[in-house]
Design a protein that fits this description.
Helix content is about 20%, strand content about 40%. With about 130 residues, it is an alpha+beta fold. It has a single domain, classed as Hotdog Thioesterase (Thiol Ester Dehydrase, Chain A, Roll), CATH 3.10.129.10. The protein has a five-stranded antiparallel β-sheet, with helices on one face. A hairpin with a 3-residue loop joins strand 3 and strand 4. Belongs to the acyl coenzyme A hydrolase family. One of its GO terms (molecular function) is long-chain fatty acyl-CoA hydrolase activity.
Length: about 130
């Protein structure tokens, strides 16, 4: 199965273009920039699912599989894997597509854990 087939029918939680300001001294995109984009996408998913504020409490299993270059489109896909009383585990994948190409390539993946919180920052139940 090709990457295009894997992603068919899935909408990204977020899609951005890697820009020169996001690079390290070697011209590749900073890993931290990519982590922040993934956290942002997972946060959108967590807030929508919990119908309110949710905060990141953990990130597990990050692996950088391929570099991202300036000009690449980065699409981040999320899937809720587990929901507890106030927490959610969200699987996150980041894929790059070169500017003039249709083929996508997975560049990293991780699992993010979020906790739904109230206005005072205390854990709150997620409505089922």
């Amino acid at each position: 199965m090709t990457e295009t087939e894997i992603l068919a029918g899935r909408d990204p939680a977020i899609r951005v273009t890697a820009m020169p300001r996001d690079t390290n001294a070697y011209g590749d995109i900073f890993g931290g920039w990519l982590v922040s984009i993934m956290d942002n996408a997972a946060g959108l998913t967590a807030a929508r699912h919990s119908k309110g504020r949710a905060v990141t409490v953990a990130m597990d299993g990050m692996q950088f599989l391929q570099p991202v270059k300036v000009g690449c489109e980065v699409s981040v896909y999320t899937e809720i894997e587990k929901v507890g009383r106030s927490s959610m585990v969200i699987a996150v994948e980041a894929w790059r597509r070169e500017r003039h190409s249709e083929e996508a390539c997975k560049v990293t993946q991780a699992k993010f854990t979020f906790v739904a919180v109230d206005d005072d920052g205390r854990p709150r139940s997620i409505a089922k």
